[in-house]
Amino acid sequence: MVDIVKLVDLIDRYKVVVILGPGGVGKTTCSIATAMAAARNGKRVGLLSIDPAKRLAAALGLSLGNELKEIKVEQPDVNGAGSIEAAMLDQKAVFDAMVLKHAPTKATADKILQHKLYVAASSKLAGPLEYMALAKLYEMVESKKYDLIVLDTPPDTNALDFLKRPNLLAGFMENKVMSWMVKPFYLASKLGAGRLFSTGEKLMGGVAKVTGFKALAMLAEFLVLLQEVIEGFHKTGERIVTILNRPDTGFFLVSVPALASGRSAKNLARQIVNMGFSLDLVLFNRCLPARIVNLLNDNKDTSAIKNKVQLLEKLAKRLEGEQSSIAHISNSLNDYTDRNVPIHRIEEQDYDLHSGEGIYRFSQDFETGAES
Amino acid sequence: MSLSLNDLQGRKLIIFTGKGGIGKSLVTAALGQLSAENGIRTLLIERAEQEQIAPIFGVDAVGHREVKLQENLNCINLDPTKCFEEYIVKQLGQKKLFEKVFSNNVVRTFLNTIPGLSESMLLGRIFYTCELIDPSPYDLVLFDAPASGHMQNLMTTLDAIINSGLGGPIVRELVRVRSFLADTAKVGAVVVATPEDLVISEILEFLPKLEAESPAKPLGVLVNRCISQEEFSALQGFSSTEGGSNNQGALSFLLKRYEKNLKNQKRIVEELEHLGDLGHSGRYAFLPELGSIEEPLEPGFGQFFLKDLLD
Q1: How far is B185 from chain A (nearest CA, A)?
Q2: Distance (Å, rounded) from C-alpha A213 to C-alpha A231?
Q3: Integer Cα distance of A313 and B202 in angstroms
Q4: Fewer Cβ atoms within 10 Å of its own Cβ: the N or the C terminal residue of chain A?
Q5: pLDDT score, position B48
Q6: Looking at this predicted complex, what is its ipTM?
């Protein structure tokens, strides 16, 4: 059996809460609600969002940028001390800041910032945003300004990529990719093609057969230029892994009770546990409200309705799907972990969530949502 | 203007995108099923850790191999690392080079950290499947692509690499991939949406951006989860009968919700017609709200679900 836990007491256990889930289930909304619930209880909260679409913040009337900024929380029942500072990551801005921080000299930093490859990689390409979020998270933890940091992650597989990033870079460092392969190749390329002696250089020569020698030499040159920055990232990554593994870091999985999202959520739950993190809460967002369930139950056997009021029939189908989806996830959680993972149901709301007032109301309903 | 089945089936590759959680995979699967039932040899492609397409047809997972789901319908879940291997071994004919160099752990780690490489390999593999196998085993390829934000990144990756000044054989190959994706006679993107405020404002921003920056151009929008006026009237009628009398709170919640659904359908038409007048891709079609679906899909599901495309 799963313990019944009050959401606020649960949030109280953590200094960092990572919110994960499939796309379009309301992760950002739940992140804001978690932050508001904690702030209501007097906590200083830092909220970091990396919603690539940036729609939600705009809809909330929050113009969030790269720097942490206090957001006004209109909460009449607050005991006074709580606050929320939020930031929405701009990939290029954090990337630039990391380069300036870790590059050995200002001249190197400028060289990097103006490099064609850097311009392409820092703003256009998928992937680096995840490193950036981790760097920002680390900065926030280190500042010791917050009682709780809530981290909203990109959807699905991207969320996992995100957690794997530090390990990827660790592999890059531990395998001595730079010192054994890239750097010698870069030096050899400067002396002219055809002079590849060491095993590392020869391997790079092999790669060059596919990429072209010049292209690879350019890439190597860029990486050599970036060496200190990569090392800086790596160190940050290592520290982040420590933070993510602390007992006071919680992982909340958000889903909606439907087939496709349920499949993704189940897979995410399994992977979170397999990666050695603790799964601490499953939130089912947008469950059919109790009054709709009552309406459906009251009219279950009325055959006249069945054929005429199609929308109720479809809702009944949805309810069936919901129940089996929640049951399915609860059962599979038992297969992945011995711990009791609380499941929290949040009903679909009839007010507009995407306003300051709406999200505040949601954060209250979120806190008191049906527990199972 | 309305989007028709011919706009989709008349091309070689259709890419489906849209906000997360609004039924992209189901729409892709439904069009695949309908096309296969019409005798069109179709391949469904996805790229996901957790497979979404195969389970819709009652198959657990397919992985990185083309698996037959039913007559005329195959499915593959592309793994970029394997796409890279296939590119070197099959396309370049360099099996030995792959074994000697690219299987090396250090080289792998090196390649894994290069941003944009796996996205390029993925698009390269789709290009290979669509264009380079002779005779082509498929008439139609449907790609269940990532959600809007990541789709934009995926699609701009090619230009970022091509314009980075790198040069070399891979970049030359990517130029070919790009020109295939930019061929509007062969390739089109479809944005899946729902009649919700937030989704509508997102697509209105996303469509012109995709059109401007992506080599693959948007064809139009499929609006999922639409209720009909008849369904709404039936519920309204029910709410005034005895059966509804005990549950007025619930019924007014639902009526408010569904009224918004109808209103937003009209709004989408207006906004997209306006985009169309401005010379953008503003075609659209509507798909019904289903409540929930049963897996595997029954035969004929696509025919029913996509009927607005048939008119």
Answers
A1: 27
A2: 26
A3: 30
A4: N
A5: 83
A6: 0.92
